[in-house]
């Protein structure tokens, strides 16, 4: 289910309909089935689609879920609306009727609207209580159509039976869950209220969980992006390009970082690091380590000495997470690059003739682990040569292991010279796993 508008076969209504006379065992079986099918992900829109897929046509001919706009855009609980001013978004709609596209026109998904207090939807949100309308008068249907400026609404709703349940979580109204039965169907009865309220309660919990997840991921991404460089100036003797792609979910949003730091005497530091762990704490740790790296880089230390001191800083910070880091120092005058690694993946070097190799850099322990010194390796970086630094999200995923990923990256770097930005784009397109479960940082530096 990818669309917010679900069309169900109306011919299945008679066999599936759970009416007010259903026994307790049948209702319990329905709710158990709903529990297994609702909330399979922490995606709010997907959760709403799953709810309606369960409810239509089992409970109604059509249904919709409206969620307060501020909850979607900001992840915050809005004040309970009592004056009809609540701004809500239609997240999903499901229909099992003969004229489905009329309902799509009448109630389009993603529409943001206000429901006045005189409407059942507005009443449910204002009072935080379920509203049952056995049959909607034609005059009220006309008023709704006028309020939204669509005549098709009056044709679709006149004579229908309504059941509108507020979505309540933590004492707050998240929105409402509306079910509609057409004039040809039996109207809702008092016996239906308890069942729909139980379904609405479970829906609200799932929506609230999705809200919390989305807010934490948004916070982590905002923090992470604020701590990364927004633009890198071309250092002496180098052309640089980079790509940073956040993970597709909170479980992968972590602490990948990169930096290009000008040093004295035509030297430049190139840094890529990865904090282990995920979420806001990993992003905050990344910010601390990036700041410490920049401070130590101002001393123009060789990479091995810098990582030794950075490791001591990491231990003094008493961080819960450990991190890996590759630090390179390019010297324009000598045409060389010195590299040291704190548990990080090996850089790759592309020669001017297009031959790519994995550099033999001995990795020391990750930052925050042990007190060992780090080995320093020195390589020539001639004009036209290219150095590639990256994080494990680029070479490791469910589709391939890290050795296969390294081989693929080496193959992509091998070949005729291309523009450095074009190389970045080509690598990310080819190497990013389809699951997007980890951050990706890629930094390329080409000698002029």
From TrEMBL:
One Pfam family named in its UniProt record: GAF
What protein name applies here?
Answer: GAF domain-containing SpoIIE family protein phosphatase
Which SUPFAM superfamilies does the record cross-reference, listed alphabetically? GAF domain-like, PP2C-like
Q: What's in the keyword line of the UniProt record?
A: Hydrolase
Which positions fall inside the PPM-type phosphatase domain? 238-447
SMART domains in the record, alphabetically? Answer: GAF, PP2C_SIG
Top-rank lineage group of the source organism: Bacteria
Outline the extent of the GAF domain: 33-217
């Amino acid at each position: 289910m990818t669309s917010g508008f679900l069309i169900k076969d109306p011919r299945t209504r008679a066999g599936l309909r759970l009416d007010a006379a259903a026994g307790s065992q049948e209702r319990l079986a329905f709710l158990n089935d709903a529990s297994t099918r609702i909330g399979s992900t922490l995606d709010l829109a997907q959760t709403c689609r799953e709810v309606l897929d369960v409810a239509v046509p089992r409970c109604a001919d059509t249904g919709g879920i409206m969620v307060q706009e501020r909850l979607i855009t900001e992840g915050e609980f809005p004040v309970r609306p009592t004056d009809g001013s609540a701004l809500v978004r239609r997240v999903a709609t499901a229909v099992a009727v003969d004229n489905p596209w009329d309902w799509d026109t009448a109630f389009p998904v993603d529409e943001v609207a206000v429901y006045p207090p005189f409407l059942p939807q507005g009443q449910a949100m204002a009072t935080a209580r379920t509203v049952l309308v056995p049959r909607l008068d034609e005059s009220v249907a006309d008023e709704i159509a006028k309020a939204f400026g669509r005549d098709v609404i009056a044709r679709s709703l006149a004579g229908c039976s309504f059941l509108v349940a507020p979505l309540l979580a933590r004492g707050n109204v998240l929105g409402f869950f509306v079910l509609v039965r057409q004039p040809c169907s039996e109207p809702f009865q008092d016996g239906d209220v308890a069942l729909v309220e139980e379904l609405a309660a479970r829906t609200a919990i799932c929506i609230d969980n999705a809200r919390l997840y989305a807010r934490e991921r948004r916070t982590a991404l905002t923090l992470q992006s604020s701590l990364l460089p927004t633009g890198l100036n071309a250092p002496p003797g180098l052309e640089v390009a980079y790509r940073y792609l956040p993970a597709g979910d909170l479980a992968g949003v972590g602490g990948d970082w990169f930096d290009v730091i000008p040093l004295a005497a035509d030297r430049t530091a190139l840094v890529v690091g990865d904090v282990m762990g995920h979420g806001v704490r990993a992003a905050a740790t990344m910010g601390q380590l990036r700041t410490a790296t920049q401070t130590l880089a101002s001393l123009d230390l060789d990479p091995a000495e810098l990582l030794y001191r950075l490791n001591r800083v990491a231990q003094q910070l008493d961080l819960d997470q450990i991190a890996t880091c590759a630090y390179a120092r390019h010297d324009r005058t000598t045409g060389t690059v010195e590299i040291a690694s704190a548990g990080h993946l090996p850089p790759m070097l592309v020669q001017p003739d297009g031959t790519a190799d994995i550099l033999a850099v001995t990795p020391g322990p990750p930052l925050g682990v042990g007190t060992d010194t780090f080995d320093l390796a020195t390589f020539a970086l001639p004009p036209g040569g290219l150095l590639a630094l990256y994080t494990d999200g680029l070479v490791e995923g469910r589709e391939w292991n890290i050795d296969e990923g390294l081989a693929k990256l080496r193959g992509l770097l091998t070949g005729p010279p291309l523009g450095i930005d074009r190389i970045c784009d080509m690598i990310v397109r080819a190497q990013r796993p389809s699951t997007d479960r980890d951050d990706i940082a890629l930094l390329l530096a080409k000698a002029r």
